[in-house]
Design brief:
The structure is a homodimer. Chain A contains 16 helices and twelve strands. Chain A is α/β, with parallel strands linked by helices and about 350 residues long. Chain A folds into two domains: about 180 residues, NAD(P)-binding Rossmann-like Domain (Rossmann fold, 3-Layer(aba) Sandwich); about 160 residues, N-(1-d-carboxylethyl)-l-norvaline Dehydrogenase, domain 2, CATH 1.10.1040. In chain A, the strands form three sheets. An eight-stranded mixed sheet of chain A has the order 5-2-1-6-7-10-11-12, sandwiched between helices. In chain A, strands 3-4 form a two-stranded antiparallel sheet. At the A-B interface, helix 7, strand 11, helix 8, strand 12 and helix 10 of A face helix 7, strand 11, helix 8, strand 12 and helix 10 of B.
Chain lengths: ~350, ~350
């Protein structure tokens, strides 16, 4: 197959490895932000952020060569981050051909004017040319997959979702290797909600490490704040499961399979093991305002904060419409209060875990 | 209230802190293995394993003073480990009085001859004198709670379970503090299954770090094996949810509340953050046989391995009886193969996450 990846960041590029190993014709297209990455790939076959040689047969393209890169491809992978999802539609739009598969690795969430949540594949859909967008099939990749591990050919388990279940199976067949295990699903919305919300809730888990700092650090007997991190993790899982229930169109059985499987606790778990979202949570937990933390982490994409910002707007609207009950998402509300409203951190632990008795 | 804790290990002793803070009369009774702990507590008010001063008003007792310690108490906490659950019944049996509450902090599992799983409070029940065992109420504590953090008065969220829901509420009222958040539940079996299985599955998560060692460690681009750990975590959550469904007597709604809440992913998460179960998994993942790992960790209680051993016996019986389907617990089976059957480690990733599509 011929596959083009648009966006030469970590995750987009990492998908080159299983594709190359499977013998596909792979083209890696940088965005306008990826110029030096593509230059390095061209000159040395080396991806400076991934810190690896590109696998054999992957051809790098600059953004102005996108027409050539997309020529005749069967699959286009959107490897841009959540800030690039509007751009990508316009960038690939003119070159789309009926029957192509468009797969997004981006994690994020937007909301409609009335508060309805919009998954990113649907945002991309809205940016595609009207005459072709119903002729291509949109899909997404989610699940616990640190890009550097996939590129290192470490064992990884992920989910490929599309409303067209057959397309999800087809994509799984194209990408699957002995180290890249893929489960196809038709529940695209559920998959994307897990992928987005696990980022927001990872911010919550990160708070515990910051609160530890604020309390003077590990005490003389060696006590951390893992209990609090774990309770936050569990409340995050609980709230993700509620979003799946609210989303509509997801069967009760599938809500549960996702809520205690790879898309929710699996992806959530790997995200809490480190990275910028945890670091942001730690700064907030240590008492920094979001503005201060934003400044300390200047230049980094804070997707979790973007999701919290979207939800700050959407939550009251969904509550007003009776879709969300008051107090149904106490952890998310606490994140909104800190990140968007600038209030001091106050985790309402006693409001967690309703209906446990 | 008057509360006696029998077993002066980490978790038993940690419960003294909220009890003391709530002004209760607290007695801490060492087992025959805790002699030097009680001596230190008597002489210096210092618990050498917890590395902390006992809180004010806690009176330490040697095991031969148990009659005096249990005199007139309202609540008895069993703080022994899973190897002590048969002993505890005999130790406290003669002093039980009708109306008392007996709370176990022990995590573990046994199985009946036919493979039926037995939660530890029911094992304790079987060891109590027949004339009084129906006159006391058994309960258990579970959820993500590292003892040293509770004793350090760090924020902790746990679940108190009893088939007598009213007793669970009563106990929660006795133990709850501003840092020790307690959710009472009537679903004792579900709670105890989560607490036991999360130990077994943490062994599975620990394998990833050992497999990393075996693969030569972190590679030059910084790739760990977090993706594999996360997939194992997710499969563990999935298998725990199935045990809750199989257990019977747990409503479908409650299965889910537990399976994506504090008892399952919450407790599982905290357990994977470190400790001897992770260490054992790491040794097995690195290629040691269980016998070798057992020797390297001589003297340590390996509760996870005990649970795997119990399940090695119970799984085929439950399968033969049609209660468990063949291949329904691929991760647990892989653990049985390594820990009990001495086979080389082989994680059957492609058998995970059935019914995802």
């Amino acid at each position: 197959m011929k596959v083009a990846i648009v966006g030469a960041g970590l995750m987009g590029t990492a998908t080159c490895y299983p594709l190359s190993d499977n013998g596909h014709d792979v083209r890696l297209v940088g965005t306008h932000l990826d110029g030096d990455i593509i230059e390095s790939c061209r000159e040395r076959g080396y991806h400076p952020r991934l810190k690896r040689q590109l696998p054999s047969g992957v051809r790098p393209f600059f953004v102005d060569e996108i027409a050539q890169a997309l020529d005749g491809v069967d699959v286009i992978v959107s490897g841009v981050n959540s800030l690039g999802v509007h751009w990508i539609g316009h960038a690939i739009g003119p070159y789309l051909r009926p029957g192509q598969l468009v797969v997004a690795v981006t994690k994020g969430l937007e909301a409609a004017e009335n508060g309805d949540l919009l998954i990113l594949p649907d945002v991309v859909y809205g940016e595609l040319p009207e005459d072709v967008r119903d002729e291509v099939t949109l899909a997404a990749i989610a699940g616990p997959c640190i890009a550097g591990e996939l590129a290192g050919r470490r064992q990884s388990c992920v989910v490929y979702g599309s409303r067209d279940r057959h397309a999800a199976y087809e994509l799984a067949g194209i990408f699957r290797t002995s180290y890249y295990h893929i489960w196809p699903t038709g529940d695209l919305v559920a998959l994307e909600l897990c992928a987005a919300f696990k980022n927001a809730y990872t911010l919550g888990v990160g708070l515990a490490a910051g609160l530890l700092e604020q309390a003077g650090g590990v005490d003389s007997a060696g006590a951390y704040t893992y209990n609090l991190a774990a309770a936050t993790f569990a409340q995050g899982c609980t709230e993700i499961s509620r979003w799946l229930q609210i989303a509509g169109g997801v069967s009760a059985e599938k809500v549960h399979v996702f809520a205690y499987g790879l898309p929710s606790p699996g992806d959530f778990y790997v995200t809490t093991q480190g990275g910028r979202t945890v670091r942001l949570g730690r700064l907030l937990g240590a008492g920094h305002t979001f503005a201060e933390a934003r400044e300390i982490m200047a230049g980094e994409t804070l997707e979790a904060a973007e999701i919290v910002r979207v939800m700050a707007d959407a939550l009251p609207k969904l509550t007003a419409r009776g879709i969300v009950a008051v107090g149904e998402f106490p952890l998310l509300q606490a994140l909104v209060d800190v990140v968007v409203r600038g209030l001091p951190l106050d985790l309402p632990l006693d409001a967690y875990f309703q209906s446990m008795a």
